[in-house]
Amino acid sequence: MPGARASRRVVTRGHVVHRACRFFLRHGTVDMGALAQDLAVSRATLYRVVGSRDALMADVLWDLAEHILDRARRRRTRGGVDGVLEITRYFVTALRASAPFEAFLRAEPETARRLLTGGCVHRRAVLAQRSILLEAEERDRLWSGSGIDDLAYLYVRVVESALYAELLSSRRPDFALAERTARALLRQTL
Fold first, then answer.
1. DSSP result, the chain
2. What's this model's pTM, rounded to 2 decimal places?
């Protein structure tokens, strides 16, 4: 029809993240060209919506981790320190059992290290751990609220040291050591 405007596909960041999560679960990565094609938008539009591949990958990794973490929190059967460790144990086991996540760690170790241990995924993990510690605090009066931010940060670093051992030091993960260390950290601050 002459004079008609060309239609433009409008996508939101939430929609892009959702589709990128689906792509990641199938491929263990996010290919921006393939994702743009899947969304029926140009690569330029995709980058305008998400900013960068790293920003999108961080959102994808956190979205997937948050789902596992929420499931772990719902499955918790214990209180106090044991409940906190139970959530972590479930989370670590589920995450390391994820074939797409393992494929990502192997294929993109530098990106994984940058996003998981030094970027917004790490910051979100610390905030989530803070929330878990506060839940335990409300139930069992374990920690003083004033040091909870430092405790959450240190706890996440202990877990990361095992979860991403291959990325950080080329060592094999030692989850038993990480759990003993995390337990000692939690008990030390009682």
1. -TTPPPP-----HHHHHHHHHHHHHHHSS--HHHHHHHHTS-HHHHHHHHS-HHHHHHHHHHHHHHHHHHHHHHH----HHHHHHHHHHHHHHHHHT-HHHHHHHHH-HHHHHHHHHHSHHHHHHHHHHHHHHHHHHHHH--S-GGGHHHHHHHHHHHHHHHHTHHHHHSPPP-HHHHHHHHHHHHHHT-
2. 0.87
